Amino acid sequence: MPTTPGRLSPPSAITVESPARLHLGFIDPNGSLGRVFGSVGLAIDANATRITARQAPASRRNAMIEGAASETQRQRIEQYLTQLEAALGRGPTIDIEVHETPRAHTGLGSGTQLALALGTAYARVRGLEATTADIARILARGARSGIGIHGFDHGGLIVDGGRNASNTNKSTIIPPLIARQAFPETWRVLLVDDTSREGLHGDDEKRGLASLAPFPAKLAAHLSHLVLMRILPAVAESDFETFANAICDLQQTIGEYFAPVQGGVFASPAVARALEAVAAEQKAGIGQTSWGPVGFAFVASAQDAERALAAARRVSPGAPLAFTVASGRNRGATWRAASHRHHGANAA
Prior knowledge:
Pfam families: GHMP_kinases_C (PF08544), GHMP_kinases_N (PF00288). InterPro entries: GHMP_kinase_C_dom, GHMP_kinase_N_dom, RFAP_synthase, Ribosomal_Su5_D2-typ_SF, Ribsml_uS5_D2-typ_fold_subgr. Keywords: Kinase, Transferase. The longest helix has 23 residues, at about 240-260. The chain is about 35% helix and about 20% strand. Strands 5-6-4-1-14 form a five-stranded mixed sheet. Strands 2, 3, 7, 8 and 9 form a five-stranded antiparallel sheet that branches. A four-stranded antiparallel sheet has the order 11-12-10-13. The chain is of the alpha+beta class. It has two domains: about 1-180 and about 330-348, 2-Layer Sandwich (Ribosomal Protein S5, domain 2); about 185-325, Alpha-Beta Plaits, CATH 3.30.70.
């Protein structure tokens, strides 16, 4: 892994913004056809992660972490900084400021984007060369899906190839990028978040996956065909109707498989009602990202998105739902030099 100092002096502070992603479904959760998982996903232009890393005063050895959304997030950042220092070597203390992150455990990939944004900013302020894949390995991201990692680099609609089911060294293998398509600029997606709940994560997620029956090879073949011969060509040709139908098929198939663990095809009944109302009024590709609770409805235009939002709201009076209209994001993470704060005498 290259970690040599760059030729130019690094900026003293850098801000990284990385896109949230929708995980549209696994292709083969058990590897029944030879590769485990495999994923389809989309980078979006809403719910971004934005952090700044700054060199601390030379006299201070402990990093300051500002703006964390919770104590859990603050502790995670501390852990990431420790892992990065262990892998990349001791250097100047780096302070972290969190400007915005998605709500955790909602299916938007917040953990991976925080890790990659933090690692990228940390390495660049240190003047080190570390790729996104390097950072993902250091911070143990991409255990199942590569969508967040490849979305960070490229944006757009992403398909990853999962892992070879016979490879036992899973900790060092990031699912390879096998397809990337620019998402049509006119299409929109309505996001619906049930703010009263979180999706499965951590040990509960591991136990849930372990409790599921083997995924039938016939269904894995069906999903492979959906991705290769319907979803990817539809995006390439801006064929919204085919795309929407294929997304609904993919989501229904994978949702029924995960239903015993998450309580239904959708984790949130309120989200399900809102999305079903959208689909009853217009052509839409509906589903849930990862374990939810965020659900989505793809529609063909900004005008259709306004109609979808109105339909979802009509059937959700009093429900703890938050709505966002987003577009696909056809670029990955961005970074820029940031102003370096003047620390007071008591900051040392």
